Amino acid sequence: MTRYLVVLLILLFTSVAANADLVFDRGLPTANLNDAAGVNRSNVAWGFPTPWDGYNWAVGDNFSLATGADVTDLRVWIVGADDQPLSYMWSDLTLFGGPDSSNINELLNVSTSGADPNVKISPVQYVGGVDYQNSSGGFDQIYQVDFLLNWPVLGGTTYDFFVGGTPTANNTNSDSPFLHASNAALSGSTQQGADNLMGYLAYDSSNDVVGWGTWDSNGDGWDKSSDINVQVITPEPSAITLLISMLGVVGLGVLGLRRRT
Predict the structure, then answer these.
(1) Residue 3 DSSP SS3
(2) How would you classify the pairing of strands 158-167 and 230-234?
(3) pLDDT, tens digit, for every residue of 28-65?
(4) What is the pTM of this model?
């Protein structure tokens, strides 16, 4: 009996260890999508001309976790061009991050080719199978971008993140990646930590950060405020710890059985 319990717990441990925990959720909107929503449209995407004024530019936002953890997946969404792959517009992506208002540095630079193990790029749609409608009325593919990294963050601390990229020759306006954003009140989905502010960052050709700041899109690019949609994912230590404890209990049970025989 004890042998079977140990085998079952080991199998359960292996299964749970592969799981992940969504610890911060400001995902894609599910309501008031595109021009059909009229003045209540919730979804938008932001990018900057880059390079501009001698620097490259990136859009971003922030998040805060209740307890410290190692962020293993920072997920954002980028709006591409028509139905072309993300690599059609940007040859690489650079994730910058750090504690709010201090020590913002490059965390990860990845290729958009599809062969980089440090990023997962997946075409997605809104609920109902709808694409992003651009300002010209056409529809563009949305790409879910999962930056796979190991970023230790402290609990109760606000962290900034920014996503830059190198425009390709197809990117005729030389724009930075268009990060998906939404108005929290109209999104219809969980919009954790939304504060109606977004971030911008300037960096040089070596990916060294030059400066950054925040802006409100209400009256500065749009008719309402917005926040970058982001999800933060960590391993699931609580379940793993529980399994270790359970294995310890089984071990004590085995010892007890031996003492009784």
Answers:
(1) helix
(2) unpaired
(3) 999 999 999 999 999 999 999 999 999 999 999 999 99
(4) 0.85
